[in-house]
Amino acid sequence: MSGEKTYVEDVDRAFYDFRNEEKDVYRVRSGLTEEIIREISREKNDPDWMLQFRLRALELFHRIEMPDWGPDISGLDMDNIVTYVRPDTARMHTRWEDVPAEIRDTFERLGIPQSERESLAGVGAQYDSELVYHSVREEVAGQGVVYTDLESALHGEYADMIRQHFMKLVPPTDHKFAALHGAVWSGGSFVYVPPGVTVEIPLQSYFRLNAPGAGQFEHTLIIVDKGAHLHFIEGCSAPKYNVANLHAGCVELFVGEDAVLRYSTIENWSKNMYNLNTKRARVERGGKVEWVSGSFGSHVSYLYPMSILEGRGAGCEFTGVTFAGAGQNLDTGCKIVHNAPETTSYVNTRSISKSGGISTFRSAVVVTPKAEGAKAAVSCQSLMLDDQSRSDTIPAMDIRTSKADVGHEAKIGRIPQEAVYYLMSRGLSEEDAKALIVSGFAENVSKELPLEYAVEMNNLIRIEMKGAIG
Predict the structure, then answer these.
(1) Distance between CA atoms of 313 and 308, rounded to whole angstroms?
(2) pLDDT tens digit string along 409-451?
(3) What pTM did the predictor assign?
(4) E strand or H helix at 110
(5) Rounded-to-integer distance, Cα 322 and Cα 325, Å
C-alpha cells in the first residue's frame, strides 16, 4: 500500500461527503507527546486519576508494536494526526436550536433531528472531538435511565461508576490502539439502565468527523443492570479528504444478569479513514448481547467486537455485513469467549467485495474448561462481484472441554449470471439487478435494523454498486 493512496473516487458518496469550512476554535498540534496529552487533559478538566491514566497509556502506546498480522497500516503516521479538535461551540447543548447553525445543518442533512423526533428515545451528536448535543425523552429519564456524555458523567454523580468501569474491558495493555485511545480519548456517551427497566425505543449516538488529518477517539460506556433491556444505535460518517484520518474509538458494554442489550451500528467512514475501533461486551448470568454491524466505509478497518460470556446461560448473537470496494481493505469479524456453563453464541455474517476490494472475516470462538454445555455456531458467507476482488475467511476455534457443541460453516461465491439475466428480463438494468441481489444477500443484517437504518444500508449498497458492472 503506497502512502499516498488514501482515497478513491470511484463512488459518488455526495450525500455523506459534504464538508463544512473548518471553524474549530481549538486544536492541539499534530503528533503524540506527553505535552499534548497534558494539554488535552487540561482542556477536559480531568480529575487527577484520569490524567495519570492517560500518561500511563501514552507510555504503553510508545512501547507496544504495530500489528503485523492484518492489513497494511504503514500509511498511518501519528506525527501527522491531530488528536483533539474542539468545534466552534462553547459547550454541549440540550436544545437543538442552541447548537451552532453550521454544525446543526450537518446533522440535519444526515437526518438526525428527524430521527429523534420520530423514533428515538434519546440522541447524542458528536462533531470532531466533542459532543455538541445530547437529549433524552422525559419519560425515559423518568424511568431512571441515564444517557449523557461521558465527560459530564465523569464529573458528576456517576464519577465513581465511570472510574470503576472505564477501560476495564478494554485495558490500554490490550493493543497499540487501545493504548492510544486511553491516552487521547474525548467525547462519547454514557448509558446506565437501572434494574428491571425496559427502554421501549432506541437510544442513538452519531459521530461526525469533519476535520481533515484528525482523529476521533470517542468512548462509549453502557451499563445495563439486572433484568433491564436496551437497544442502542451508533452511526458514523466523515467527508472524503486526500489525507489520512483516524478513528480509534472504544465501546465497553456491561450486560447484567438476565439483561438484554442490542448494539447496532453502521460505520460509513470515508475512504481515507483508518478505522481501528475496539468494542467489547461482558455478559452476566442469563444475559444476552446482540450485535448488528454494518461496515461500509474506511480505507482500512480492523474491527472485531468481542463478547465475554461470564455467567451461566449467557448468550451472544452477532450479525454483520461488510462491503469492500476499490481501495478498501476491510478486516472484520468477532471474538466470543464462553467462560461459563450453558452459554450460547451464534454468528451470521456476509462479506461483499468489488472493484479490487479486499474483505477478510476473522472469527475466534474460545470455550474454556468452565463452559460445559456451551453451544456455538459460526456461519459466514462471502460474495465477490468480479475477478479483481478478494475475500478470505479465517476462523479460529479454541475448545478446552469435550462437553461443548461448536460448529462453523463458510461459503464463497459470485453473483449467479442466470439470476442477473432473469431480473433484466423483468425490466431491470444490469446495475439494478446486481444491486437487488446484493441487497438480498445482506438482508440478514438489514432486517435486524430499525427501518430508517435498513433504508440507509440499502442506499449505501446502491451507491457502492454504481460502476460495479464487469
Answers:
(1) 12
(2) 888 888 878 888 889 998 988 888 888 888 888 777 777 776 6
(3) 0.86
(4) none
(5) 10
